[in-house]
Write a structure and sequence with these properties.
By secondary structure, the chain is α/β, with parallel strands linked by helices. The chain binds protoporphyrin IX containing FE. It catalyses: Hydrolysis of terminal non-reducing N-acetyl-D-hexosamine residues in N-acetyl-beta-D-hexosaminides.
Length: 1173
Amino acid sequence: MFSRVSSLVSTLCLLNTLLPSPAAAVWPAPQKITKGEGVLFLNQNIEVTYNGAFVCWSSSSIPSSEPQPHVYPDHRSSLSDEEEEEMLTENLAYQQIPYTYGYTPSGFKSKEIVQAGVSRALTGIFNSKFVPWILHKPGTKYEPDLSELEWLQTLEIIQTAEDEPSAFKPLAGEVDESYNLTVSESGNVKLTAVSSIGVLRGLETFTQLFYQHSSGTFWYTPYAPVSIQDSPKFPHRGILLDTARHFFPVEDILRTIDAMSWSKLNRLHVHVTDSQSWPLVIPSMPELSEKGAHHPSETYSPGDIEKIQKYGAYRGVEVYFEIDMPGHIGSVSLSHPELIVAYNEQPYHWWCAQPPCGAFKLNNTAVDEFLEKLFDDFFPRIEPYAAYFHTGGDELNKNDSMLDEGIRSNSSEVLQPLLQKFIDTQHRRVREAGLTPVVWEEIPLEWNVTLGEEVVVQAWLGGETVKKLTSKGHKVIDSNYNFWYLDCGRGQWITWENGLPFKTGYPFNDWCGPTKSWGLIYSHDPTANLTEEEAKLVLGGEVAVWSETIDPMNLDTIVWPRASVAGEVLWSGRIDENTGQNRSQIEAFPRLTEFRERLVKRGAASALTNTEGGYLFYPLVRDFKFPVGAHTFFNASMGLVETALEHVSLKSVLVLGPALLLANLAWWLIVRPAWQELKLARMAGARPPKIPSRLPFSIDFVYKSVKASMNYQNLPMWKSLFVNANAATVENRIAGRCVVMTCDPENIKAILATQFSDYGKGEPFHREWKAFLGDSIFTTDGDLWHGSRQLIRPQFIKDRVSDLHVFEKHMQTLFRAIANGGALNGESQRVDLEAGNGKPVDISDLFFRFTLDSATDFLLGKDVKSLSNPRQEFAEAFGEVQRVQSIISRAGPLNVFMPRGSFRKSMKIINAFINQYIEQTLRLDPNDLASKTDAGYTFLHALAGFTRDRQVLRDQLIAVLLAGRDTTACTLSWTIYELARHPDALKKLREEILRVVGPTRAPTYEDLKGMKYLQNVMNETLRLYPVVPFNVRLALKDTTLPRGGGPDGTLPVKVLKDTPIAYSTLVMQRREELYPPVSANFAPVDVYSPDRWFVWQPKPWQYIPFNGGPRICIGQQFALTEMAYVLTRLFQKYERLDNYMEEIDGGNPTLRAEIVLQPGDGVKVAFWEAKKA
Ligand code: HEM
């Protein structure tokens, strides 16, 4: 106990010494800063020069309560303000550059921009009255003594280059914003920058070094000497402000721009119109705002727009506009209804993400003419102050075009070319106006629209989208909604009627909650997981202020200080270059709290940095101090945890345990599902029919499924779900989790092929199967899976799979085992082959042994001899592991409670067996390995030629063993099951075999491929008994399935990330409606009829026993060759089968569907040899 307490104490002592001074000032953090503890006072007649010329100041607006030493003589007081300003600028421009409080430049002259910057900086210091008591313990003496004052002497500003014209409306990266700032002990300040915008950034930093003395008449910095070198990490650092859902008067926007410049943010993206309103006055089309604005007073005139843009440009904040299209444009319908579809359509979620919907008609020349007129009016007015124009493009709902008389389709194939044309035309206009287009990510990613090289894409959906975009070469602005949407977590914006709607909506969360706290915002790195090349394409980011729940009343508290937090990530970088670590909240928090005070004092009504009332951070500073990095904080926390553990009693466990369990249950069963429902409501697409449930959490469904599974009734159970819903895709919520089930070929195609990257095996599957199959081809997605596939695929080339020797050896043992009526008792057991004629045998058991022996031989060069040992340790262990694994995967989260003793024991046996071969192989000299191509060359040798990693070798071997063994054994078993009860088919098969190969010769690969009836037999077996009858894929992102939603099942189905899509090839391949009508030569769907394959070919994706798409079975040719070989060899020898299954299952095969689909009662038959001539 003592040692723990003492370690905690010593940690805290260490932290104390690492503590930065509590008011470490500057936000965002400069790239490099050193500072001392000297105090220097600032007075209002500090000598300010700009490139050698003086910057002087007027006293007119200095509050009289403040000291006014050495005030520049105001000898022009008889002049008007304008005249005075003109004189100041005109007359003194060449010697002195005056500054006055509130000075506004009259144009984009560098001198004036700097002059205005100096005026604002000094206003920020002298007028904001920031006495920092809040940053210090009560009763401490934190203020400097006023008895001896050291004064700052000069502020020397040097701009080292002339401003390019683009400096005031730059494309990302066109203006150099870097600066160096030094404050010497003797009181000289030097600010050097390449551009006037760099000077502005440096002046903001300068402001933040100062506090007001509580005497009210002195201003000081306690940090002298100071040295700062600073430049931004990202060139685009912005806020998106939505002025369509709620309107913001010009003064609110100007105030926002001011606070942006204090935070070194440099882009204001005004999402100026949307379906909710059109506040933008377009003089050539006045009807747009007259009819589309919320109210005539809630509009932006051309003068307003110019004022906002200029105001921003003077502060280094570029204001650019977005007119979102072709969706999110419903408000145009109020003045031009003929251009818009789906405005105000109900229920809205079929047509858009948010009422009142509305999209441009995509195939309509009137829309094009409208946009030409609109752009001709708007672009020339905004182009002088902006480099960009945003054409939107988010959340376009395909269904809208179903209502468009010129299209009447929601098919991507139809819509994509129209959208491409639309974007091409509008972007050409944007370019011609001298602007650069910006679009939302859906345009290139969801719609595959090809964009011009210069077009910037704004990402918002999170996950991998920034990576996807940059890997395709797009320039990106990141606004990941999971981190940087400031409106999230404020509750739902639609209202709910009492009763069922109320219950459905409860507790009325919005789609993207929780609130993005400053800590969460600070944690986001827009370039995380990108390569260096990809990261270069990230121009920066924007926090978004969508205004459903925001208006001028709460604007400031929503935006500040959180936008400044993203501002620091974008200016300073998420990673602190000095430490190479992520910047820590602990270090950031006091600086942010201080900056928040400055925001408030300078006029932005910022929220608190914490929400617990008062300045909670202050006692934390006193008690714990602030460590420099998260690492030391972690040590401290662990110490606290240890201390807490010492106080844990049985009682607290008893109380806490159930409470945690309840909280967990509430989360999984109630809160998460409700949140998901809200999210789904906002997504594009429709829902499929729901499986009705009488009991909560679909307990009745779970019971039915488990019962069906235990009784091998999965097929009728699944069928009934689709039949009852009259649909091929249905949905259910099982224990709070949404699951989609489908037997629709279109949807299966999407999961496996056309939307391959949207779906995968998923991490839970990987986790559950890891102990058995490791990181092998079966359990992984993405790069890991791809690597495995690359490794394994070459081993299945034709040369390898056409080598039939490996099967022949085991065939001879199989014949002996058949004659024996079961597995042999040792290799040397004598068997009377003649006496075995007509002896009943479970051929299924023998097939499992045969395929295990052949597979181990093929893979390792050594078979396990299970055909000649009734009890075989490896085979039993392999069987046991599969049994337990199958239960683990079905048990879902409850699998943690499963005993795993037999599983572990069996895994040991399997690993020991496989590892001995791996060791033997790795002992071979790599050169020998490379030259080894003789008969002893195995799959393992080939793999070891590529990797010597034992774990990789082990994982892949076991995966292929599992894939190759049971699958072929099951298919062979079902084939014999059916041939035994279809003697005609057997007769035809045998005739073909004898015709092509004769009674004794071993068949060649070409013989096997050339036997059409044999191929039909195998195809027909795999049609009725696909080996993987039920399968599942997890949605790896929010996405859709192409079909199954809406009242008639034709709309795309919306699918949330992490939703499992269960699909059944077994059900699909037995759907009558996918087949031609029954006729004389086309048997009913459930009947085994190899002959049907002479007259019929299944349509693509309606027959997929080997799966399809990029993950199609690698061993398909190997399996078909092996099975054809076995069947040929068998029926060269045997001419007929006695069927014993009728008495066992009454002719109704037991479909045992665990991992693979196998005959649940075995396959009891007797083989009869042909009479020898
Ligand atoms: C009748 C025999 C077979 C059938 C019906 C069959 C069917 C399938 C199916 C449906 C899958 C997809 C599983 C999924 O992704 O969920 C698959 C994958 C695979 N199969 Fe087969 N298989 C057979 C035989 C074999 C054999 C003999 C081998 C190798 C010796 C093999 C190797 C593989 C491998 C490696 C994969 C994983 C492919 C990937 O994920 O990229 N299969 N097989």
